[in-house]
Amino acid sequence: MNIVIGSDHGGYELKCVLAEYLKSLNHIVEDVGTNSREACDYPDFAFKVAESVASGRAQAGIMVDGAGIGSAMCANRVNGVLAATCNELFVTRNAREHNGANVMCLGSQVVGPGLAKKLVDVFLETKFEGGRHQKRVDKILAYSGGGQISQQQLIAAVIERVLAALGGANCAPTGTAAAACPEIPDQKLIGEDYVKNICAPGSALVVKKGTLITPLALDMAHKKRITVSYQ
């Protein structure tokens, strides 16, 4: 798995421990800093971690500061990112199972290296349950203030990842027109359940102007070899 990791000066030592631990498990690790104990500002590195996940360069992110709170606040400002403070095993598992978190934030003053490794294991091994939790996650990703759904804000954050993931692999065979996914009148949000249950494998999904498609829905489209295009 491609994992991005970062820290401020307070989390530097724990970050180094976790980076080496992840490499020992054969993960590909991108370290975005900081690279010393010299005082620095955690937002600078939390944003780098979050942007790497949002762009698709990394499949999961880990950020370490003193408490794991400020970095989570920063990471959640990046569209497409669901960050959680994960200083306890139950919370970490819940963050993945129910909330689909893709960035975990740890506090070096709260957890030691041993517990931190266990938390990382739980975060990476636990799968998102979907189901009733899916629509709640979709609402989080779709919210842009005032109850408005902003296609541009979310699509801009994930479009690079989507194009890289699709890579033409979802195209229908030459000379064959892919069947279109059934349309839902006035549909403003395309979630994973719609793509999973409504769209046939190998079909075509057109995302109309003013409609939002979530990252999880795009991932499902890729798995089902569905061609996604935008109007």
TrEMBL record:
Keyword annotations from UniProtKB, A to Z: Isomerase
Pfam assignment, any one: LacAB_rpiB
Membrane-spanning parts: none
Any one GO molecular-function label of the UniProt entry: ribose-5-phosphate isomerase activity
InterPro entries listed in its UniProt record: RpiB, RpiB_LacA_LacB, RpiB_LacA_LacB_sf
The keyword Transferase belongs to this UniProt entry's keyword annotation: no
Signal peptide: none
GO biological process entries: D-allose catabolic process; pentose-phosphate shunt, non-oxidative branch
Coiled coil regions, renumbered to chain: none
SUPFAM superfamilies found in the cross-reference section: Ribose/Galactose isomerase RpiB/AlsB
Recorded superkingdom: Bacteria
Protein family: Belongs to the LacAB/RpiB family.
Protein name: Ribose 5-phosphate isomerase B
Organism: Candidatus Wallbacteria bacterium GWC2_49_35
Species classification: Bacteria, Candidatus Walliibacteriota
